[in-house]
Design a protein that fits this description.
Blueprint (H helix, E strand, L loop, with lengths): L20 H7 L3 H14 L3 H8 L3 H8 L7 H11 L20 H25 L2 E16 L5 E13 L9
Antiparallel strand pairs: 1-2
Helix pairs in contact: 3-4
């Protein structure tokens, strides 16, 4: 029995999908602007939660925007700049639609959770909601770190997606 090893060599410019978060962030178009925003946030002393309250958005969504992972409507770019005490031009880039990517250890674990519990979640959604899916557009998300009775820190993640029944258009079965 013969074993063969296949090797492909790629030039740096040939790589379309980065293999890790660091590679993604290195190629991020607005890395300097995001770093400047993070510095302004740090200088303000505001947490994501406090900053989100000031501008009227969700803290998780806002933290994601600081990573270049969210489209931010212009009105919120302006509110963010005002809350951080920086020029509006320093946040205007957030109104561009970003490319999104990930492979950070926490993000990997979230994928693992969905891989492990996703089929069970799907079954329960169908059992309780019928032939439907959860919206990721009409969607809310919150994250908190709490302490349990034994002093262990616990991560609480709440997904709140609209239940979307499948449309019955066309001739059955479609």
């Amino acid at each position: 029995m013969m074993n063969f090893i296949s090797v492909q060599i790629f030039e740096e410019d040939d790589i379309m999908t980065p293999m890790n978060n660091a590679d993604y962030l290195i190629r991020l178009q607005h890395a300097d602007e995001l770093d400047a925003m993070k510095a302004a946030k740090k200088a303000s002393g505001l947490t994501y939660e406090a900053l989100a309250e000031k501008i009227g958005v969700n803290k998780v969504w806002l933290a994601s925007a600081f990573e270049g992972q969210q489209y931010v409507p212009e009105e919120y770019c302006d509110k963010l700049a005002e809350a951080l005490g920086i020029d509006k031009s320093a946040t205007a880039f957030l109104a561009e639609h970003p490319y999104k990517g990930n492979t950070d250890p926490i993000l990997y674990r979230l994928h693992e959770v969905i891989d492990t519990y996703g089929p069970a979640i799907k079954d329960i959604i169908h059992e309780q909601g019928g032939n439907a899916i959860m919206s990721a557009i009409d969607f809310g998300l919150d994250v908190d770190v709490t302490e349990d009775a034994e002093g262990n820190h616990r991560v609480i993640i709440k997904f709140d997606g609209k239940l979307l029944p499948y449309a019955k258009k066309g001739q059955y079965p479609w």
